[in-house]
């Protein structure tokens, strides 16, 4: 059955590729798999693909360097990942079925902490210091555009435009076919003007990147924006000049003729900054974001007003996985690393379940049929865990051979494959048993 589904996906992908263009509505997020850093435009860490009850190791490959950002999976099953290698390629694309390297190339060193994004015909978009590239599924260069700063990830707007926000806070709306701007540039952090003097040095495009991992004014935008493709709202965190904390900001890109990006509201109650990306609820009415001092916030997406905040006592590695029914499964963090789920009740939050018998060492991924994938840690190394999202109970476990440290991301393939990326640079793919 999985083979039949894959054949259908590949046939549809081939047909779209021959047409020379992708979808005009929804970009990579209309056909499943895990094409973005947090899967979709909402940063939900969920997929419309069904998950597996049991998984078995299929293959693993070393990239040759440390990996600082999750791998992504196109709808045809092509896995793309970046790595901090000393020489040779630092962006790689592998086939899902057998781990064969399909293509690789070398970009600037900043790419090692950037997740590539795939569209619905497996074109790849990836940032580097001072620019954004697009490649075909075969690794041929389509275009490169210059930007101010380093875009750590790109997203898709509802009209199919690329939303490119650099760590300096420059917002670019880009035509994915041509690389041309579809709207004027918008700067979340004002650039120096004549009134500021004439001898202000121009910063290198990778200036302050180290500050993105702890959250600081040196990296004004340290996270991945979330996009409501229906309303055109773009939610991002930003640490503005002179501020003592980061803010959550809502922008609006309406599309249409002669569009411009505008700022709708700014909520500044993020003490200690924010190192986790905002995530939208399924109905796009609530934005969830962690501050830098251990609280999870629920913000009204239309007004920017807080609905509730909940003290966790720690800051998870990334934002939560947000299920359609309001369940929030937290990423790794805290002294015990317990796998924890909370439920949004509208005006507050309550504990849904907690697994304090496991030490989570990764990022949870939720599937359409109520399965959850994550990576746990033991004295023997790392283990892939499949759990029931409803109650957190274990459905299956599978050790990752020779894996240590922690996982920087968990992704789901088009047929439910579990794809784990470790900080040491290993890619692990786990599949189900054949029918």
Describe the protein's architecture and organization.
The protein has one helix and 32 strands. With 435 residues, the chain is mostly beta strands. It is globular. The relative contact order is 0.16.
Q: Count of DSSP helices? A: 1
Give the end-to-end Cα distance, rounded to a whole number of Å. Answer: 7 Å
Q: What integer value in Å does the Rg equal? A: 20 Å
Broad shape:
globular
Query: Looking across the biggest beta sheet, what order are the strands in?
Result: 1-32-31-30
Which structural class fits the helix and strand makeup? Answer: mainly beta
Helix content: under 10%
Instruction: Please describe the biggest sheet, giving its number of strands, its sense, and whether it closes into a barrel.
Output: 4 strands, antiparallel
Please tell me the overall pLDDT: 89
Q: Can you count the beta strands? A: 32
Q: What fraction of the residues are assigned to beta strands by DSSP?
A: 35-45%
Unreliable residue stretches: 1-26
Task: Supply the key terms.
mainly beta; 4-stranded antiparallel beta sheet; 1 helix; 4% helix; disordered N terminus
């Amino acid at each position: 059955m999985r083979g039949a589904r894959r054949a259908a996906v590949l046939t549809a992908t081939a047909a779209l590729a021959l047409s020379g263009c992708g979808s005009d509505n929804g970009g990579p997020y209309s056909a499943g798999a895990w094409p973005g850093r947090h899967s979709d435009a909402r940063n939900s860490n969920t997929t419309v693909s069904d998950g597996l009850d049991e998984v078995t190791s299929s293959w693993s490959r070393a990239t040759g360097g440390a990996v600082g950002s999750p791998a992504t999976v196109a709808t045809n099953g092509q896995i793309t990942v970046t790595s901090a290698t000393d020489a040779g390629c630092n962006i790689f694309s592998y086939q899902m079925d057998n781990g064969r390297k399909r293509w690789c190339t070398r970009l600037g060193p900043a790419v090692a902490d950037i997740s590539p994004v795939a569209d619905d015909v497996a074109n790849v978009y990836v940032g580097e210091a001072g620019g954004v590239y697009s490649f075909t599924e075969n690794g041929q260069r389509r275009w490169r555009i210059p930007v101010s700063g380093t875009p750590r990830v790109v997203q898709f707007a509802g009209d199919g435009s690329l939303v490119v926000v650099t760590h300096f806070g420059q917002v670019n709306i880009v035509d994915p076919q041509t690389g041309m701007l579809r709207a004027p540039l918008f700067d979340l952090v004002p650039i120096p003007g004549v009134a500021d003097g004439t001898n202000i040095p121009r910063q290198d495009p990778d200036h302050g990147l180290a500050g993105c991992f702890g959250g600081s004014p040196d990296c004004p935008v340290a996270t991945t924006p979330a996009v409501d493709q229906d309303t055109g709202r773009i939610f991002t965190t930003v640490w503005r000049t002179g501020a003592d904390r980061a803010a959550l900001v809502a922008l609006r890109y309406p599309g249409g003729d002669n569009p411009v990006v505008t700022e709708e509201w700014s909520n500044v109650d993020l003490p200690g900054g924010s190192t986790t990306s905002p995530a939208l609820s399924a109905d796009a009415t609530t934005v969830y974001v962690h501050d830098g001092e251990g609280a999870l916030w629920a913000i009204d997406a239309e007004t920017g007003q807080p609905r509730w905040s909940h003290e966790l006592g720690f800051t998870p590695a990334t934002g939560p996985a947000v299920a359609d029914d309001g369940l929030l499964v937290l990423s790794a963090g805290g002294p015990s690393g317990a796998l924890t789920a909370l439920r949004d009740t509208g005006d507050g939050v309550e504990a849904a379940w907690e697994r304090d018998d496991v030490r989570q060492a990764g990022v949870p991924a939720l599937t359409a049929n109520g399965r959850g994938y994550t990576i746990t840690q033991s004295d023997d190394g790392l283990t892939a865990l499949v759990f029931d999202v409803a109650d957190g109970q274990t459905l299956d476990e599978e050790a990752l051979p020779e894996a240590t440290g922690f996982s920087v991301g968990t992704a789901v393939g088009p047929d439910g494959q579990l794809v784990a990326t470790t900080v040491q640079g290993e890619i692990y793919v786990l599949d189900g048993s054949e029918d």
